[in-house]
Design goal:
With 344 residues, this protein is mainly alpha-helical. It is built from 8 helices and 2 strands, in the order H-H-E-E-H-H-H-H-H-H. The radius of gyration is 49 Å and the shape is elongated.
Length: 344
């Protein structure tokens, strides 16, 4: 039909006037109706089809492209949303399992603790290790007292040195303003300045002593006590799972009971391995701590004795030699506040 309309339009005559203008075309209602029908029944670009087969084949393999596009988008969106839901569900299940394990472990440990406190439960005891731990705690308390007293001595001695410094300046000023007592004020000013200098040297030695004791007590000993705390928690968990296994062993021996016993046996073995590992760590740390404590305290007590003796004996040379022996460097005057590089 389209070919017949196009051929009719091609063979129509267009009259032209003498001045080159086209004349009016005769009205052809049939041509206009045919063109409208072509426009209405023409191909829709939004419904372009894919034909499977050669030219002139049947229309059985025609697949609308709109249906392909829509199905692909629906499939991709549904698959991505499904993966997101699976990931979220997996995280939620993992958190729930962790919470369940933590709650069960807390319940068993609390039950074991209460049983031990009221004397109804048994606990694993390593008498030798427990004695060493108690000695360490007692030693730490005593060393903390030494540290507190040494800091108090440092503060008092610092105030005394500052007073001597001010007194020396006052004597020096009065020696300039009192001609009749110039020599006497001058002698005392020199004495106070010398005492102030030696006092600052002694303060350097005491500060080094305090710093070393502080490191030993609040870092080295504290690190060992943290390991001991982990060991004690592992001991409590080990006893809790041991008691749980003993209770299940006294129960029925059916299929369900044997499965519970098997699971409890595995948990007990895991807690036992953890307990023994931490007990070994505590034993090693206690040994190294004792060796380090003896080494550090031998050096610091020798420093403290030599510095105090040289200061009160008025032996400035021996006092300075003591600081050199222990590689102690004094801060220059006005350097009490550390720089921003030292604070990093």
């Amino acid at each position: 039909m389209t070919d017949s309309i196009m051929s009719k339009a091609a063979t129509m005559e267009i009259p032209i006037n003498s001045n080159g203008d086209t004349g009016t075309l005769p009205e052809d209602d049939s041509l206009e109706q045919d063109l409208q029908q072509v426009m209405v029944s023409g191909p829709n670009l939004n419904e372009t089809s894919i034909v499977s087969g050669g030219y002139g084949g049947t229309a059985e393999g025609i697949i609308p492209t709109s249906s392909i596009k829509g199905s692909n988008m629906h499939h991709s969106s549904s698959s991505s949303s499904g993966m997101a839901e699976e990931t979220t569900r997996g995280v939620a299940v993992e958190k729930l399992e962790n919470m369940k394990k933590w709650s069960l472990n807390t319940y068993k440990c609390t039950k074991q603790m209460i049983s031990e406190r009221f004397g109804r439960g048994s606990r694993t005891v390593d008498l030798e290790l427990e004695a060493q731990i108690e000695v360490l705690r007692d030693t730490k308390r005593k060393y903390e007292n030494v540290l507190r007293l040494a800091r108090a001595l440092t503060n008092h001695f610092y105030n005394m040195v500052q007073t001597q410094h001010a007194l020396g300046d006052t004597f020096a000023d009065l020696s300039q303003k009192s001609p009749e007592l110039r020599d006497e004020f001058g002698y005392n000013a020199e004495t106070q300045k010398l005492l102030c200098k030696n006092g600052e040297t002694l303060l350097g030695a005491i500060n080094f002593f305090v710093s070393s004791i502080n490191t030993l007590v609040n870092k080295t000993m504290e690190d060992t006590l943290m390991t001991i705390k982990m060991y004690e928690n592992a001991r409590l968990e080990f006893d809790a799972y041991r008691s749980d296994l003993e209770e299940l062993s006294l129960g029925p021996r059916d299929a369900v009971g044997m499965a519970r016993i098997e699971a409890a046996q595995q948990q007990y073995q895991a807690q036992k391995d953890k307990y023994e590992r931490l007990r070994s760590d505590v034993t090693i740390k206690l040994k190294f701590l004792e060796e380090n404590k003896v080494k550090v305290m031998h050096k610091q007590l020798l420093l403290f004795h030599n510095a105090i003796s040289a200061y009160f004996a008025g032996n400035q040379q021996q006092l300075e030699q003591t600081l050199k022996q222990f590689n102690i460097k004094l801060r220059p005057p006005g350097a009490d506040k550390p720089s921003w590089l030292e604070e990093q």
